[in-house]
């Protein structure tokens, strides 16, 4: 059983090193970690990310092919028939609010950005329904601009790792950015999301099956017995679809 890690006495340098080791190890545990949403361009990713709020990526991926085909441009969203768009988005939940956001985004992109998705955080967060989380997803995966995306998994794991004690996603983002190298910001988020889905579940984390145990001060939060923990692990490298 790993020795308990005392993050209260950890130096900033030790914490930085531990954070980077965690991200490296996560890469070995989840070499397939990547964004699960399907898209071919920045507009499609922006739309898919808006639709992923309170919805699984799998469900979003079922809905988006028809949406992308029907609305191939910002202008198409701006001019969408609201009832028709809402009907297409209904399976993703909160479909009225999401339709509202997409029509508003289409209008804003058309009026202020020449119909293109802007490639800066400051510009993206001016779009209706787009916060830092969505903006960082788009920047990191469509523009190659590193960004830490703090969703429910990244927030939970960051706190369990003892890398932050903040609950506010913006503060978590700032603390992770300070610990990690910018080139790792996007991939660190992807890996943490995969680890949250597969091992470090909100209710019963699979601690006894987790390769991060020695680096994690929360080891023991879930079952530590190997067999019991192994049964909690969801998905495998060849079973990615099951996680989405
Ligand atoms: S040891 Fe447990 S709490 Fe820590 S990352 Fe692994 S599953 Fe999560």
UniProtKB/TrEMBL annotation:
The keyword Iron-sulfur applies. It comes from the Bacteria. PROSITE patterns: ENDONUCLEASE_III_1, ENDONUCLEASE_III_2. Transmembrane segments: none annotated. DNA repair enzyme that has both DNA N-glycosylase activity and AP-lyase activity. The DNA N-glycosylase activity releases various damaged pyrimidines from DNA by cleaving the N-glycosidic bond, leaving an AP (apurinic/apyrimidinic) site. The AP-lyase activity cleaves the phosphodiester bond 3' to the AP site by a beta-elimination, leaving a 3'-terminal unsaturated sugar and a product with a terminal 5'-phosphate. Its EC number is 4.2.99.18. This is Endonuclease III. Its cofactor is [4Fe-4S] cluster. PANTHER family: A/G-SPECIFIC ADENINE GLYCOSYLASE/ENDONUCLEASE III (PTHR10359), ENDONUCLEASE III (PTHR10359:SF18). Residues 51-198 form the HhH-GPD domain. Keywords: 4Fe-4S, DNA damage, DNA repair, DNA-binding, Endonuclease, Glycosidase, Hydrolase, Iron, Iron-sulfur, Lyase, Metal-binding, Nuclease. [4Fe-4S] cluster binds at residues 200, 207, 210, 216. GO terms for biological process: base-excision repair, AP site formation. The gene is nth. GO terms for molecular function: 4 iron, 4 sulfur cluster binding; class I DNA-(apurinic or apyrimidinic site) endonuclease activity; DNA binding; DNA N-glycosylase activity; metal ion binding. Binds 1 [4Fe-4S] cluster. Belongs to the Nth/MutY family. It catalyses: 2'-deoxyribonucleotide-(2'-deoxyribose 5'-phosphate)-2'-deoxyribonucleotide-DNA = a 3'-end 2'-deoxyribonucleotide-(2,3-dehydro-2,3-deoxyribose 5'-phosphate)-DNA + a 5'-end 5'-phospho-2'-deoxyribonucleoside-DNA + H(+). Coiled coil: none annotated.
């Amino acid at each position: 059983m790993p020795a308990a890690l005392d993050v209260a006495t950890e130096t900033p340098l030790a914490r930085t090193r531990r954070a980077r080791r965690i991200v490296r190890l996560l890469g070995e545990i989840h070499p397939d970690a990547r964004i699960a949403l399907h898209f071919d361009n920045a507009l499609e990713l922006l739309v898919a990310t808006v639709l992923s709020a309170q919805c699984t990526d799998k469900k979003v991926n079922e809905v988006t092919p028809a949406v992308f085909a029907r609305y191939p441009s910002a202008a198409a969203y701006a001019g969408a028939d609201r009832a028709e768009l809402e009907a297409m988005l209904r399976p993703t939940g909160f479909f009225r609010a999401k339709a509202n956001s997409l029509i508003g985004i289409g209008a804003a992109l058309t009026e202020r950005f020449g119909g293109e998705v802007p490639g800066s955080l400051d510009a993206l967060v001016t779009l209706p329904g787009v916060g830092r989380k969505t903006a960082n997803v788009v920047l990191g995966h469509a523009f190659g601009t590193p960004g830490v995306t703090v969703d429910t998994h990244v927030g939970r794991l960051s706190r369990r790792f003892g890398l932050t004690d903040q609950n506010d996603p913006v503060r978590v983002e700032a603390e992770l950015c300070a610990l990690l190298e910018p080139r790792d910001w996007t991939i660190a988020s992807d890996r943490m999301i995969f680890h949250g889905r597969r091992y470090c579940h909100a209710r019963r984390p699979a601690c006894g099956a987790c390769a991060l145990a020695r680096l994690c001060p929360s080891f023991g939060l879930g079952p530590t017995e190997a067999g019991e923990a192994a049964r909690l692990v969801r998905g495998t490298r060849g079973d990615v679809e099951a996680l989405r």
